[in-house]
Amino acid sequence: MKRPFLHLLTGLMLLASGLLTCIQAQEEDVDLTLRPDSKGGKTEVEVAIKVLDIAEIDGAKQSFTANVVVLAHWQDDRLKGWAEFRAMDMSDVWDPVLQITNQQRLVKTFPDRVTVAADGSVEWVQRFWGSFSQPLDLHDFPLDKHTFVIQLVSAQSDYKNIILKQSSDSRFRSGLAKKLSLPDWEITGWEVDASPLELLEGGNSLPGMAFKFHAKRYIGYYLVKVLLPLLMIVMMSWIVFWIHPSEAGSQISVSITSMLTLIAYRFALGAMLPKVSYITRMDGFILFATIMVFIALMEAVTTSRLVKVGKEEMALKMDRICRILFPGTFIAVCIYAIWS
Known about the structure:
This protein is α+β, with helices and mostly antiparallel strands.
């Protein structure tokens, strides 16, 4: 009987203390929406960014889709004495106004409220789901590696007196989930950088924190779906070197078929390759393959013409040289494209 009575008494004392604090704040005309320590030093806000999932990385749209939880806590001694873990609206207390600068279309799933403990510590948690912008250099596509950033800043008007730092509380730790629904990328590492962010060159620097994760693209999909069929189309165009130059119809038919197949294949690849203005590694490889098929067609036309003018031996010699020259050149280009 004594223990429940003591708990009840303790609860009543905390409630009374909270009411007393509220009454004192009203009597002293204290505005709880102003920054804590506004008369003293800077206010430290400890932040943790947890990435629960990464659903997609879209190189063509220069963006990625992720499920992110942001946790922040700070100390506000003016709120001491409230009952344990009191929930309050954001409009009733001061908060650092944390914003994600590279957001595109984000959805907030938690209510905008804070939890205040009896010791005056304030906690804020919000979950964001949606797309984030990320400029990418795709020159090495599909062998590219990138660093992706979720950039957080404090947009408070009193930003010069706010410090964002990594959370030291074991309950608030930044991190990345071990299992992700990302099918075509490998996450190689992550880090957190707590440093101010300069939004515009030469402008003011806002308190900031960035969660960075490093990823590289899986090459297996492109080897099977893109490069292997492309290799077969190019090799098909080499059949003309083993057809006698006198059979001009067969030679030109094979070459034209290879060229038309490659053109149709390029249109099909347009949906999966990034639409960028510069030439990627994949673009260069496909362009070189197209040129080789076209040169094989020109060679077939040339040797058939040589046979008609009585230079059959020269035509056969050209075919023998091309049987070695074309595969050798193509293999060298493949090695260069992969290892350069």
